[in-house]
Design goal:
The structure holds two protein chains of two kinds. Chain A is α/β, with parallel strands linked by helices. Chain A has nine helices and ten strands. The model of chain B has no long low-confidence stretch (mean pLDDT 92). A five-stranded mixed sheet of chain B has the order 2-1-5-3-4, with no helix packed on it. Classes of the chains: A alpha/beta, B mainly beta. Chain B: InterPro entries: Beta-grasp_dom_sf, Mopterin_synth/thiamin_S_b, Thi_S, ThiS/MoaD-like.
Chain lengths: 261, 66
């Protein structure tokens, strides 16, 4: 069981709601994932636009999952705090995925603005889960200002490149006294399993599920991978060796005596 | 009175409260938040907050996201 802030979770797979073909497909995939915490975004309502957004909130409320609004689109701490206050009113939750990435090409999170916003939002009573680079020093600083968890990236958002930051994630996991949720870049169930084997407390997956040819089946695959990775971590993984270490006794029977014909 | 709501101006009777905006736009206010003149207004205060002519409302909607 995983505890973050005031909530406990049976599932260590958190999911995003973006990039699905529709709300029915999303609801089916999220159900298959077993996820109990799902992210959402906030957008300024376009009254003159013909592009109406699907009602994604109703199926999520029906599924009784916990909602984690994000501050995507914020380019500074000030904008993120504004977005957080709006999200709290829109969804009635004080949980928040804090994300500030001003650079549209790589969507790299801004560490300085993120730390500044995290400090203020914690003071305002938010349960803050910051998306950040896999920077062990920054993660400690975010923990110190009161974040309920840290969410370092595996690789850039939507890149599906897996744990490019693996060595630094390991340091973060070793040092953290709050849950570590590996977010962004997890493109395959094997990446999720790898993060869990490292000792991550959870992973957050969106693109890899939502853009799969069969999102529901892929959600199931991620569910199994996260469970397998967690069990492996808790079971104590075997240590690596440079040289071979035999699994069977080396009796040398082929070199003793002559074969019997 | 005229109220600015995002990219549109809407006409409301004098003395209208914030919930009247959603009625005028034919929206159910589930999953919405708003700011008046740059300040986020808690949902609990919507029925008690009377709008003034020229108020600038920014309405936000929950959408899918990662």
């Amino acid at each position: 069981m995983l505890t973050i802030g005031d909530k406990t979770f049976h599932s260590r797979l958190f999911t995003g709601t973006g990039k699905f073909a529709g709300s029915r497909q999303m609801a089916a995939a999220l159900k298959a994932s077993g996820s109990e915490l799902v992210t959402m975004a906030l957008k300024r309502l376009e009254l003159e636009s013909q592009n109406k957004h699907d009602d994604i909130l109703s199926p999520l409320l029906t599924a009784r999952v916990n909602l984690l609004p994000n501050t995507s689109g914020a380019r500074s701490a000030e904008e993120a705090v504004f977005a957080a206050r709006l999200a709290r009113e829109a969804l009635g939750t004080h949980w928040l995925k804090l994300e500030i990435h001003p650079d549209p090409k790589y969507l790299m999170p801004d560490p300085i603005e993120t730390l500044k916003a995290a400090k203020q939002l914690v003071q305002e009573g938010f349960v803050v889960l910051p998306y950040c680079h896999a920077d062990p020093v920054l993660c400690k600083r975010l923990e110190e200002v009161g974040c309920a968890a840290v969410m370092p990236l595996g690789s850039p958002i939507g890149s599906n490149k897996g744990l490019a930051s693996r060595e630094f994630l390991q340091i973060i996991i070793d040092q953290a006294r709050v849950p570590v949720v590996v977010d962004a870049g997890i493109g395959a169930p094997s990446h999720a399993a790898e993060a869990m084997e490292l000792g991550a407390d959870a992973v957050l997956v969106n693109t890899a599920i939502a853009t799969a040819a069969n999102p529901t089946a892929m959600a199931s695959a991620f569910k199994l991978a996260v469970e397998a990775g967690r069990i492996a971590f808790e079971s104590g993984l075997a240590t690596e060796h440079t040289q071979a270490v035999a699994s069977s006794p080396l009796t040398g029977f082929l070199s003793v005596g002559e074969p019997v014909l | 009175m005229l109220i600015q709501v995002n990219d549109r101006q809407i006409e409301l009777p004098l003395g209208s409260d914030v919930t009247a905006v959603f009625d005028a736009l034919e929206l159910t206010p589930l999953g919405y938040a708003l700011a008046i003149n740059g300040m986020v207004l808690p949902k609990s205060e919507w029925p008690h907050t009377r709008l003034s002519p020229g108020d600038d409302l920014a309405v936000f909607q929950v959408i899918a996201g990662g």
